[in-house]
Design brief:
single chain; alpha/beta; 7-stranded parallel β-sheet; 5-stranded antiparallel β-sheet; 15 helices
Amino acid sequence: MKKRLIAILFIFLSSLLLVSCEKELKDYTPKGNNLEKYYDTGNCGVYYEIFVGGFSDSNKDGVGDLRGLINRLDYLNDGDPNSGKSLGIDGIWLMPIMKSPSYHKYDVTNYMDVDRTYGSNDDMIELCSECSKRGIDVIIDLVLNHTSTLNAWWKEATASINNGDLTNKYVSYYTFVTEKEQESGKKYYNKGIENSGYYYEGNFDSSMPELNLDNEDLKDEIEEICRYWLVDVGVKGFRLDAVKYYYLNDDNKNIEFLKWLREMCESYKSDCYIVGEDWSAESHVARYNAAISCFDFDMSGQDGYIYNCVQGIDSVSIYAKHLVSHKELLKSYNENAMPTPFISNHDMDRCAGYLSVKSGNAKMAANLYILSSGTPFMYYGEEIGMLGSRGTQNDDINRRLAMLWGDNDTIRNIRGATYSDSLQVNGTVKSQKNKSDSLYNYYKELIMIRKLNPEIALGDYTAIISDKWCIGGFLATYNNKSVAVIHNTSSEDTLSIDLSEYRLESLTQFIGLNDAKYENGVLTLGPKTSAIIR
């Protein structure tokens, strides 16, 4: 039987973990479960993305809701770092929760109101309060590209357009043009205003008219929306959808608007956290870090750096060099910028479909990105190897399936999902909780190892290069302390690497499918295993 993962000092000794290197760990034991207790600065905890409609159902209607999420908070983080009973998540990102006619809710009808299928505004306030008690930050999706055609702003605007009144302030909340004024590369429609002679911009869909973010009245509305969620409700910040589409094909204006948004939000909450979506090449995304954090899509998916490293397409040294160069590129635009790595999200096929649990690839992939800089984002169910892929569907419902609790939760897949339950072969939360080698328990250990070593999240990186394809890593230095993170991605070979030039003293943790030892400056590391050396 393959050797169990090396442990962390204080996580439930009785059931999962083997104690190792107690002397070395002692000085790095967190004093609490709030990141500020042991991270000096920055939003650098592990976040967990949640599709509320697919997470947990409290009222037995089959649809996930905020009350269901509140009931599951102790699963994410119970506020006690010594209990060993929770994942240790530091933040959650909620996909859109605002009133909307769709299941995904990226077409908002009311920015100040929780959709009633999810609960009430009071439920959201309670959620933020309960999260705060546990040291969990909350960010929510804020969709500013467009609204629903059921939004009151849009109804006012189109009624005025049809009456020939262009002076109504809501008309200028959107982008109305004549046929001659249409710009190449943009999509226009005239649904509902066919006889007016005007068209509206709708780059995502005819039911999602684009907002005119140059309008000052609209920006006042946006400020009030942000103030409400930040101050009255208590969220930590926002995830912004499709930031490069605010002003299509105009990055400078996009970035200018995002700077305004960030500064405005920080005037209400100084440590507000904002992260944006930009499905573009690294060089393009990096520019946006002058204003906000952005997800690192180059790390994700079946052609990303994580997958390529785990599969041996790229060497570990190539991966380590990317971590270093990516940080340097971000900091060239903003010295405070931090990477935001992830494997997959709600718009992508679930990663367990191409990083199998049985082979150990899912665990190795988790090592690569959880033990890296900045703010890693997990997708709900990733920790139990949930599967889901788009297949022949023309939408993403099969990527947003019901969480597999394995208990009496009445959560069901959203109507229209076609992914067969028989394909879910990796088990449930219930089936994995008491298995010492489960992916669920692996994630718990991995997240705690990250917390024990703040240099990983916040430090300056130096790539540690090897002439062997499957071993390598980086040195992370923060507050004059350094740790080396070394990975062996091989499926079969135990490999060694000489670290004597870095003057590291001891192996403090290792996690993976095999063993590790550190003697006379040389680390020997088993296959599919990662090590931390101080």
